Amino acid sequence: MEHRDLPLLITWRNHPDVRAYMYSQHQISPAEHQQWFDRQSHDQNSHLFIYSEESQPCGFAQLRVAKERAEWGFYLAPEAKKGTGTRLGKTVLDWAFQNLNLHKVSGEALDFNHASIRFHHKLGFVDEGRLRDHIKINETFHDVLCFGLLESEWAIKREAL
Ligand SMILES: CC(C)(COP(=O)(O)OP(=O)(O)OC[C@H]1O[C@@H](n2cnc3c(N)ncnc32)[C@H](O)[C@@H]1OP(=O)(O)O)[C@@H](O)C(=O)NCCC(=O)NCCS
C-alpha cells in the first residue's frame, strides 16, 4: 500500500458492509485515516497491502508482526465478487509465510461476522478461543472469536484451495 491508495481505502473502510464488522465502527475522517497511515508506515512490524486482480484494487490486508507470529486483518472492496476473499487470503498468507519467517498467523472476528468465520475456517485456521463480551458495539457487548494457523498447517491447506 502507498500513500496514493488512501482515498480509495477510506471509501472501503467507511462502507457500511465493512464498517459493520470492524472493532471501531464510527465513520473514519480523512485526518484520522492519514494519521493511521502515518503511524503504520513508520512501524517496521506493520505491513499494509492493497490486493489487486487484473490491475483492479479489490481488497486490503494488514499484517502486524511480533517475533515469529503475525496478526492479520483484511477487508474487500464492497463491490468485490464472491471468491475474492479466498484469493486475497491465499496471496497474503503465501507472502507472509514466505517473507516474514513466521511460525503462525492469528486472526480475530466478531461473533456475528459469519463471512469472516467461514473464511478463516476455509483457509485452515483453527479455533483457539472466544473472548467473551470483548467489544461493545451500540451498547451491546459482543464476543470475539480467535483463530490460529501454523506454517505447517498452511503448507498442506494451501494446496487444497
Ligand atoms: C470476510 C471477507 C474478506 C470474505 O470474503 P469473501 O469474498 O466473501 O470470501 P469468499 O467468497 O472467498 O468466501 C469464503 C467462504 O466464506 C463463505 N461466506 C462468504 N460470505 C458469507 C456469509 N455472509 N455467511 C457465511 N459464509 C459466507 C463463502 O461461502 C466461502 O465458503 P465456501 O467456499 O465454503 O462456500 C469479506 O466478506 C469482507 O471483506 N467482509 C467485510 C470486512 C470483514 O469482515 N473483514 C474481516 C474482519 S475479521
UniProtKB/TrEMBL annotation:
<dbReference type="Pfam" id="PF13302">
    <property type="entry name" value="Acetyltransf_3"/>
</dbReference>
<dbReference type="InterPro" id="IPR000182">
    <property type="entry name" value="GNAT_dom"/>
</dbReference>
<keyword id="KW-0808">Transferase</keyword>
<dbReference type="InterPro" id="IPR016181">
    <property type="entry name" value="Acyl_CoA_acyltransferase"/>
</dbReference>
<dbReference type="GO" id="GO:0016747">
    <property type="term" value="F:acyltransferase activity, transferring groups other than amino-acyl groups"/>
</dbReference>
<protein>
    <submittedName>
        <fullName>UDP-4-amino-4, 6-dideoxy-N-acetyl-beta-L-altrosamine N-acetyltransferase</fullName>
    </submittedName>
</protein>
<feature type="domain" description="N-acetyltransferase">
    <location>
        <begin position="1"/>
        <end position="156"/>
    </location>
</feature>
<dbReference type="InterPro" id="IPR020036">
    <property type="entry name" value="PseH"/>
</dbReference>
